[in-house]
Amino acid sequence: MSLSRNENPHLLASAPVVVGVDGTPEASHAVVWAAHTASARERELRIVHGTNLEMTRALLGSYSVVNQDVVLPISQHGEELVAAARQVAEKIDPDLRISTEVSPEHPARLLIEHSAAAHMVVIGGPEPRRGLNRLGSILLSVSSHSRGAVVTVRSPAADAPPPSSGPVVVGVDGSPVSEAAIEVAFQEAALRGAPLVAVHAWSDLYLSQFSGIIDTSIEADQIAEAERSLLVERLAGYRENYPEVEVTRDIHLADPRDHLLTWSDTAQLLVVGSRGRGGFTGMLLGSTSNALVQQANCPVMVVHPE
Fold first, then answer.
1. What's the CA gap between 39 and 34, in Å, rounded?
2. Residue 208 above 50 pLDDT?
3. Measuring CA to CA, how many Å separate 36 from each of 19, 164, 294?
4. Which residues of 208-232 are buried (b: 16+ CB within 10 A; e: fewer)?
5. pTM for this one?
6. CA separation (Å) from 160 to 10, 28, 163, 164?
């Protein structure tokens, strides 16, 4: 059961949009997206940077604790990063309420801690050619362990701004986690004045259609009708609460990951649950969500149910 607006800490007027920065171009894309979002929703933008001094101290021992030649440059670099990000945000909206923080904590831990009271947490996504580097590992940790919504902003080209047009697309699989994603997707579509596409793709029959043992075309038609009815039922209550949102249903026999990645070429935002119906117990980020935050060509919002 979802929390009411008064009970949900992420919907409180005091909840800021939190963005992590590390000096990379990907982080700059995240700052731009977060600043536009905070400005449109009249929320505070909180820019944070974790210096991970704990790791430095662990590597250098007590020497780093007493030697300011080690500690000060790291902290000063962090202050320079958040100051530069602040300048970027102020150009977008000079009246935007902005706060900054440089913390000795690990970047992932810092963002996860902020997620408890944030409207959303925003982080830059890695470029595909870099693979799962340090930025990617922080991204997966934050996406997996945060509370509320985490948005990954990754532009397909270095100088391309995040998309501001197109539909909000939500992945629906019937799990409790995707139920939370549906609600947030309707909220996002309403706030943006954007249409909503509810995608329900499943691949259970994908391999069996090649086996020749059963007539999968008949079974697929029957299952598709049942899944269509299920999707209509899942969306019904939200359509009543958000009558202004234009909704399209997309039911497809395909790999959900590939189908949603295709949608990322034209969507302004993809919304998915943190773990789907096929995830293992204790698995905090499902394979589909994992792939999307690393590969999608539009911002991806991973929703954790409260």
1. 8
2. no
3. 12, 10, 22
4. eeeeeeeebeeebeebbeebeeebe
5. 0.85
6. 29, 11, 9, 12
